[in-house]
Amino acid sequence: MPAWLQWSLIVAGLIASALLVLFIVRQWRILRRARARERSQAAFHAQRRESIVDSLQVLAMAIEQDQVEYSEACLRIKGLLELVAPELLTQPPYQVFQDVHDQISHMPTHQARQDTDRKFVRKMDKERFAVEQQHADAIRRAATALRQHTF
Questions:
Q1: Which Pfam family, just one, is annotated for this protein (predicted)?
Q2: 2: cis peptide before it, omega within 30°?
Q3: For the whole model, what pTM was predicted?
Q4: Which among 27, 69, 70, 122 could bridge 132 via Cys, Cβ 3.0 to 4.6 Å?
């Protein structure tokens, strides 16, 4: 085999090796960034979950101390439980949050409530207070259970 062919093959092999090393380094960097991004997202989700659990605890304490209307607390708790433990909404004693939500979710809130006729709002409030009164004991029991629940 001629010397020039041997040198050409050696150079081609070195070039191929260098390209493979560059490819491996690039893939390694991409993988390292992806893992860092995953760790960051996992930390964010863990912090968000912890924040939601803290909110649930605060709402449960507010119910126990009669610092919040039961209907409003049920709506908020139902929404938060859907994010961290949706299976609880079908289990006693927590299902009362879902039940109250289902009974009052058709009522206007926020700006829609302000834009609604006052007579209709009073009628809805009367209905909402009746639902609260009907489920008051179950809501308090569920709030106590929620406050003691470990997520």
A1: DUF2489
A2: no
A3: 0.75
A4: 70
